[in-house]
């Protein structure tokens, strides 16, 4: 049931204001700064994949100013062990996420909300529950693992399906790991972030059990 209390409204307003500030900061990043950040994020995530050797993982195609660059799926797929599978999100009409295998950069199509999606048949919303590693986007994450997305709720629903023992990692730009973010009851924490300067960091109290 939706929460219409005064406190819930204050929290939603705080999230909106924080999103606006973060998006404006990302838009001010120059092309060279974005490219350098993407290289560092790609390298650190690829190192993580090679170390964990997941049999199935999820990621996404970064767009616009999102950290990681559009080459991120190709970099992660190359780091996977032979026969392992990379799934990318497919946005449903209800804004929930389905998942489909990545089969190469030429097999991506433009979709809603600026996303690029694989053309392979989707495997269902529950496919994310079988991943050994989940890489997902955010505008910021705080030190408790609270994640601030763009407000559509797609990844909130996906994260609600992910087992607590599955490592969840968010690529960020420098300055987007913050002390505290506004949080609502449906928000699910993530376990770690990757930033260009500091690499992989596991968050306080958010390590997978």
TrEMBL record:
InterPro entries: FTHF_cligase (IPR002698), FTHF_cligase-like_sf (IPR024185), NagB/RpiA_transferase-like (IPR037171). One of its GO terms (biological process) is folic acid-containing compound biosynthetic process. The keyword Secreted does not apply. Pfam families: 5-FTHF_cyc-lig. ATP binds at residues 15-19, 147-155. Keywords: ATP-binding, Ligase, Magnesium, Metal-binding, Nucleotide-binding. Its cofactor is Mg(2+). It comes from the Bacteria. Its EC number is 6.3.3.2. It catalyses: (6S)-5-formyl-5,6,7,8-tetrahydrofolate + ATP = (6R)-5,10-methenyltetrahydrofolate + ADP + phosphate. GO terms for molecular function: 5-formyltetrahydrofolate cyclo-ligase activity; ATP binding; metal ion binding. Substrate binds at residues 61, 66. Belongs to the 5-formyltetrahydrofolate cyclo-ligase family. This is 5-formyltetrahydrofolate cyclo-ligase. It comes from Salinispora tropica (strain ATCC BAA-916 / DSM 44818 / JCM 13857 / NBRC 105044 / CNB-440).
